[in-house]
Amino acid sequence: MTPGGDVAVTGLGLVTPAGIGVLESWRGILGGVPTAAVDPELEGMPVDFSCRVPGFDADELLGRRTAWRLDRYVHLALVAAREAILDSGLDPREWDSTRVGVVMGNALGGVRTFEEQHSAMLREGTKGVSPMLIPMMGINMVAGYIAIDCGAQGPNLVTTTACASATTAIGTARELLRAGRCDIVIAGGAEAGLTRPVVAGFTRMGALSGRVADPAGASRPFDGDRDGFVAAEGAGVLILERMEHARARRARVRARLVGYGASADAHHATAPDPTGDGVEQAIRMALLDAGIGAVDVDHVNAHGTATPLNDITEGRALRRVFPHRPSVTSVKGVTGHALGAAGAIEAACTVLSLEEERVPPTANLERQDPDIDLDVVAGGVREERMSVAVSNSFGFGGQNAVLVLAAA
Amino acid sequence: MNVLERLAALLTARFGVTAEELRPDATFDELDLDSLALVEFAMVAEKEFGVPFGEEDVTPQVTVAQAARLIGNKLARVG
Predict the structure, then answer these.
(1) What is the mean pLDDT of residues A30-47?
(2) Which of A206, A227, A268, A334 is the most buried (most CB within 10 A)?
(3) C-alpha torsion A356→A357→A361→A367, nearest 10
(4) Residue (of A377, A349, A314, A20) closest to A166 by Cα position
(5) Chain A partners within 8 Å of B40 (Cβ)
(6) What is the pLDDT of residues A345-363, one digit of tens each?
(7) In A, what residues contact B, Cβ < 8 A?
């Protein structure tokens, strides 16, 4: 296999708070209606709202026989992966399974399962603990279960870089394809950590919006009144292929994944380096990988979490790298922040933006922070000519990951 | 409901075994309950039937009817 070459995106799958499936999710994201709502599971907590996937019934979608053994984060991932494979036109019964890899991002693993089993142990001792605890909670298991589900016997791993996990996964998948180790990689991310202790932890950090009187208005990226992110769950999966492989089977190429960059702030556990230097470095590395000049970037799908620090830092870095002011959006105004799944959801949105030449609005952006000098799309969908777009993700730990995508 | 019916209901609700598959002579292995799943089954069955139930009581080769008989015997001893 010749190393190098282009990487094609040939399939998309989404399970988001805006809906189950790409069509429903994208419609909700384009519509700009926030999904944050009071969450019964968080009743009585200082932050009692979140963005959940509505009406997701794993027994119905996957069958009880499969669902009972898996944590919710794997449920979400399997549904997204099946949709993406179907969309790609690939038939797992026919592919060379040894050439199909899986690289998924995840931050929290099966934290819900762990909490439930911990309670069971306190109640009933060791005998009360399910034998499925370990295979359900493992962060690695999401890639393992996707492989089992579709029969993918190539390299199989999970990347974990907090809120950048899925972007790291997609970038790592690109490298596997470029190295000639795989023909196809199922890549993305999944997260389902909306439990009381997790939300309490984020609340105690001061990371979450405290806008309890107005959950729908809580996730407001780049707005002057933003006060933190809204925790979300979801999954996104992209089918990535070596371009030669995609062409040989006459696949529909939805976009090209042309560059990946990554860096570490090496600054602080949770706060971004306020200079934005780490972010800038990752973006420049991705552009170099793509062989594309900054001036050729038409659009940025921002990390845009709506925390005071993230948005100002990201704004600074984008301003420096892209003085020509490409359009910027953050879908987190609609979806909230799905942590280890966010990068995949947003990469899929970036592919859809490139295909349709439409940028979804940043929900809740009413008065842009005067210290953020970017052309942020708000109020409604913007139609624009577009051939190259960047998707950013930054994680706690100062872990930055950036993708460059281009129109097919 | 007799023990076999209760066991069948449990296998359907908890483990997603379908009604068509639930022949009395079907083995746990045939119903996709591997050794790990049987540890879970033992936990759940112990609660459902209120009798001590160990992992060693069932193997993947045991049939549904045999498991029902075993549970019935345990119940008779308790009762």
Answers:
(1) 98
(2) A334
(3) 180
(4) A349
(5) 130-132
(6) 999 999 999 999 999 999 9
(7) 59, 63-69, 127-128, 130-132, 135
Considering only CB atoms, B32 lies closest to which of A65, A128, A130, namely A65
Q: Give the CATH number of the domain where residue A296 resides.
A: 3.40.47.10
Report percent pLDDT > 90 for chain A: 99
Point out the domain boundary residue: A248, A272, A287.
Answer: A248
For residue A277, the model assigns a pLDDT of: 96
- List all residues 6 or more positions away from A169 whose beta carbon is below 8 Å from its beta carbon: A103, A104, A105, A158, A159, A187, A188, A189, A343, A344
Do A51 and A91 lie in one domain? The reply is: yes
| Interface test mutation site (partner B, options A59, A64, A124, A127, max chain B beta carbons within 10 A) | A64
* A275 plus A372 within the same structural domain: yes
Q: Is residue A156 part of a domain?
A: yes
Q: A339 and A232 in one domain?
A: no
CB contact burial A104-128 (16+ within 10 A = b; e otherwise): bbbbbbbbbbbbbbeebeeeeeeee
Q: Provide the ipTM.
A: 0.92
Q: How many domains does chain A have?
A: 2
CA A13: distance to chain centroid? 11
Of A51, A163, A182, A349, catalytic: A163
Give the A:B interface size as CB pairs under 8 Å: 28
